[in-house]
Amino acid sequence: MDRNAAFSLLRALFDAAVGAASPGQCLAPHLAQLAPPKGRTVVVGAGKAAAAMARTVEQTWQGPLSGLVVTRERHGLPLDRIECIEARHPVPDERGRAAAGRILEMVQGLTADDLVICLISGGGSALLTWPADGISMQDKQALTRDLLRKSVPIGEINTVRKHISAIKGGRLALAARPARIASYLISDVPGDDPSVIASGPTVPDASTFADALAVLRKHDITPPDSIRHHLEAGLAGRIAETPKPGDPRLADVTTVMTVTPMRALEAAAALARERGFAPEILGDRLEGLSRDLAAAHAALIRRRLGEGRRVAIISGGETTVEVKGKGRGGRNVEYLLALALDLDGLPGAWSLAADTDGVDGIEEIAGALIGPDTLPRARTASIDAAARLADNDGHGFFEALGDSIVTGPTRTNVNDFRVTLIVPPDRPS
Q1: Among 99, 283, 363, 421, fewest CB within 10 Å belongs to which?
Q2: Cis amide prior to 372 (ω within 30 degrees)
Q3: Does 337 score more than 60 pLDDT?
Q4: CB 408 within 8 A of CB 366
Q5: Would you call the peptide bond into 90 cis, given omega within 30 degrees of 0 as the criterion?
Q6: Residue 318 and residue 245 in one domain
């Protein structure tokens, strides 16, 4: 298989995964099963898929609608009946705070005859930001930067977020009572836990103030005084906890997982099978350092090459990068650059890694591609791959080679997608 054919197929597999997670495909069937209310229908939501999900509601719903969703910058869409606001991600900004405040206002004062449709997807934690009383937006931004800089796992980050927020951790659902709530989720988290996706604004939360403080201690993070005082007050029982599993106040909330990362991986696997590759799905919740995962995958790739079969090794999840150099990070490009170095030009292995939302880290680049020619081409161009990896400069490396993947906003998010095509050299292409 030559380079063009391999890269073309890799991109087709990525597109299949993203397509399976598009709101038009995954949300519409569920909306068709939702009974209209006697009263009003209010649509609210947050996340990278929020605009596309809202458009699907507008195209599907029979009857009047109003509402507001907040999404990442450049992820918005023109809507007719639902307002769409763009805000900053992953560090929140004033636009996200204002949108969250308006969403809280919209759901208050409703009756049992009304329906709230909540559209929740990855990225919603940063976009739906309404700090708890006594916490400034500046302090929340500072803590977010510290959590991201320490590469704290998303589940732990959201444990903290839920306990310094007036809208996350089930509090949006409490504000909407006694209206009926139908919450539709696109999962971007390992394990598909609804309480972690966008910090679970409409579902119960099993974590506690003690858990939030433990996360900060574990990662040696000293929060601003206002946040520390708030968490300590919660620990002492002076501030109400988030609603816990079994809380009767959330009994009227229906939660529907419209699509998961595994469904996206399965869509890619089906296409790989059609193209003559035996798919091997390693899982949809692979975590850890990008470099460590690359080393493990390099060993697996070598074993599969020795078996003499065409295989597509597929995986998802969310790795982390410890940015210690001057580069821009990016967990998918870091994984690929480490993988290229581990494979060292091994013939017969072609790989892609990209984020399904179109953004790897903070870059407007989804990911990249590598093949047996990656390191030789870099050497010809006088690019030191090992030095780039040490500097966390995967984005710069692949941009220089022209092997970055730029999709623009996909308006969905089921986390990272990785695939390696195994083509034994002794097999004809």
Answers
A1: 283
A2: no
A3: yes
A4: no
A5: yes
A6: no
Domain count, the chain: 2
- Out of 237, 260, 283, a domain closes at 260
Mean of the per-residue pLDDT values for the chain? 96
Domain boundary among 203, 237, 260: 260
Residues 228 and 362 reside in one and the same domain: no
| Backbone angle region of 134, left / alpha / beta, with phi > 0 → left and psi within -120 to 50 → alpha | left
Q: What is the pLDDT of residues 25-77, one digit of tens each?
A: 999 999 999 999 999 999 999 999 999 999 999 999 989 999 999 999 999 99
d(Cα 196, Cα 122) in Å, to the nearest integer? 9
> Do 275 and 394 lie in a common domain?
yes
Residues 131 and 69 in one domain: yes
The predicted pLDDT at position 426 comes to: 65
Containing domain of residue 80, as a range?
Answer: 23-260
Indicate the pLDDT class of residue 361, thresholds 50, 70 and 90.
confident
Same domain for 299 and 254: no
Whether residue 200 contacts residue 168, with contact meaning beta carbons closer than 8 Å, is answered with yes
Per-residue pLDDT tens digits for 66-97: 999 999 999 999 999 999 999 999 999 999 99
Q: Of 121, 123, 119, 22, nearest to 65 (Cα)? A: 119
CATH code for the domain in which residue 330 is found: 3.40.1480.10
Neighbours of 342 (CB within 10 A): 17
pLDDT band at 416 (very low <50, low <70, confident <90, very high): very high
Give the per-residue pLDDT at 11: 98
| Residues 256, 273 within the same domain | no
Please determine, for residue 417, whether its predicted confidence score (pLDDT) is greater than 60: yes
Of the candidates 263, 284, 259, 90, the residue with the CA atom closest to the CA atom of residue 187:
259
- The pTM score is 0.93
